[in-house]
Task: structure prediction
Amino acid sequence: MRRSLFRPALSILLATAATLLLLTPTAYAQSSRAWVGIVLGDTDSRPGVDVDVVLRRSPAHEAGMEDGDRVLAVNGRPVRTTGKLESILREQRPGRSVVLTIEREGATKTLEVAVAASPPTAEVIDMHHRGFAVPDVALTDMDGADLSLTGQFEGLVVVEFWATWCSVCRQVSRKLEAALDEHPEAFTVLSVTSEDADTVRDHLETHPKAHTIALDEGNGAHEAFLVNSYPFVVVIEPEGKIQTVVTSIGDMDQLITGLVSDDEGSDDEGSDEP
Result:
């Protein structure tokens, strides 16, 4: 497994009171402990901790926190490291509020954040993405040509994040291929991997894929979509907005049924039969 795929910051994706740094990237604990909804960045010699991402529809987002804010204190208690911030959050209880002192563009301000109970990871991911525009990410095909998640393909686009070592990814691919065999116009699949072209080519010799393959050099797409485990499947509408995100193999059949049903409905609308 390529551990470089997952930034350390993503291991505190939920930013709960529970310390998630010690968990494997493939499974986050579900907890009723405190949750504010931020992804923390690196620390440096300056006071405070940078916030890389404020998860949409989270308590922090509702309170007005923005990507790039720097948390200086919680309830008046200074924080200099991610560990200290987590320690203070660990003391909080869902249903109460905390006052965060933040720095934004050189100015200091305070935000009152209502602490919530930690929701399941799948719910967090869906809340953050559903209904919002697709992140602008750089992808290339196997020959090095640029690929785009929007505007390049017609209709619904199903983005399948995968890796050569991932057995569950092969299950996802088979399900998508089977659906397209019966409904070739229902959607387009784009298979995104952070592995290099040579590794992918070697893999395809024994495990061919019918989908267009996109290379995510530098993990930009994985980070933008907050991919923390596989499977991770994103459905993009023609308008460029994210329709849904699936992070469980158990939800794939339901997803595909919905995609195929939409295609069948479109066929019925275009029929001239009485």
